[in-house]
UniProtKB/TrEMBL annotation:
Keywords: Signal
Keyword Protein biosynthesis attributed: no
InterPro entries with a match to the protein in the record: Redoxin (IPR013740), Thioredoxin-like_sf (IPR036249), Thioredoxin_domain (IPR013766), Thioredoxin_ResA/DsbE_sf (IPR050553)
Coiled coil: none
Source species: Limnohabitans radicicola
Protein name (record): TlpA family protein disulfide reductase
């Protein structure tokens, strides 16, 4: 009987977390992003908008390939309470990040994680692209490793934008 309880209780807790919106979601880690213009942005400042936090590198072919879709998603939802923050990995030379941002005319905030502290805080990100979708309450709703399914991502963004 004890074995059965050990199996049922976690299953009940998981189903409750999935059934109740906002339950079981992890708060975005407190971190400070250094933007290309030298200004700083804290993860607490992400609250109030649905935000895509994308860890990427100029040397990552998948990151470069998905960037037009990340830009298109930003353009589609930016006026509805959506934002994007692209975080370049610590090993990415800052001059490459600046050049990429300017030549591709990235319309959203770009940060450089010079020390690797931001990637570490966000779950020790090592693989790029790794993308997080954060709701208006500052909770991580979804994590993608690799290119997201953008149709699924758009449906999720629309659902989160509709929430109070």
């Amino acid at each position: 009987m004890n074995d059965m309880r050990r199996l049922i209780l976690p299953a009940l807790l998981l189903s409750a977390a999935l059934a109740l919106p906002g339950c079981g979601q992890e708060q975005a880690p407190e971190s400070s992003f250094v933007l290309l213009d030298g200004s700083k942005l804290s993860s607490s400042q992400l609250k109030g908008k649905v935000t895509l936090v994308n860890f990427w590198a100029t040397s990552c072919t998948t990151c470069v390939a998905e960037m037009p879709e990340v830009v298109a998603t930003y353009q589609q939802y930016k006026d509805k309470g959506y934002d994007t923050l692209a975080v370049a990995m610590s090993y990415d030379p800052p001059s490459y990040v600046v050049n990429f941002t300017q030549t591709r005319q990235l319309p959203f905030k770009v940060a450089i994680d010079n020390t690797g502290a931001v990637a570490k805080a966000w779950g020790d990100v090592k693989l790029t692209p790794t993308t997080y979708l954060v709701n208006k309450r500052g909770e991580i709703v979804k994590r993608y490793v690799g290119t997201p399914d953008f149709n699924e991502l758009h449906r999720l963004i629309e659902k989160l934008l509709a929430e109070a």
